[in-house]
Amino acid sequence: MPVLAHLRSSARILVTAALFSAALLAMTCVPASAKWATRWDCIAHYESGGRWAINTHNGYYGGLQFSLSTWRYYGGPNYSGNGYPNYATRAEQIVIARRTAYDGWGSHKAQGGANAWGGNWYKCS
After folding, report:
1. Same domain, 65 and 106
2. 108 lies in which domain range?
3. Which of 27, 44, 63, 121 is the most exposed place for a label (fewest CB within 10 A)?
4. What's the total number of domains in the chain?
5. 67, 19: one domain
6. Could you tell me if 111 and 51 lie in one domain?
7. Cα–Cα dist 117/120, whole Å
8. What confidence category does residue 8 fall into, taking pLDDT thresholds of 50, 70 and 90?
9. CA–CA distance, 45 with 90 (Å, rounded to integer)
10. What string of H, E and C letters represents the secondary structure of 55-114?
11. How many CB atoms within 10 Å of residue 99?
């Protein structure tokens, strides 16, 4: 193999190795929320393992682990037709989560995401 061809081959190997290393580094530096479709999917991952229909039998329900009082306060049964969050769809739970975190509902003010989901709110920002 001529010297010039050998240098080109070595350069290709080095460039490939550098690109591979950069890709690995980029994957490890991705924020938690970038791994999921939405912030709500990220929170559900930490709250319930991403299981939107879960009843954990600890007083919290659904993917976002609503208490019944929060679910009712922000109109969950009115919106979804379900008295329990774990029977509501993912999309319905997210609507109530937005009311809880940002929008409020009727005369009920939003409580903020960090108040409702604690440290998981910041993990998923």
Report:
1. yes
2. 32-123
3. 27
4. 2
5. no
6. yes
7. 6
8. low
9. 12
10. ECCCCEECCCCEEHHHHHHCCHHHHHCCCCHHHCCHHHHHHHHHHHHHHCECCECCCCHH
11. 21
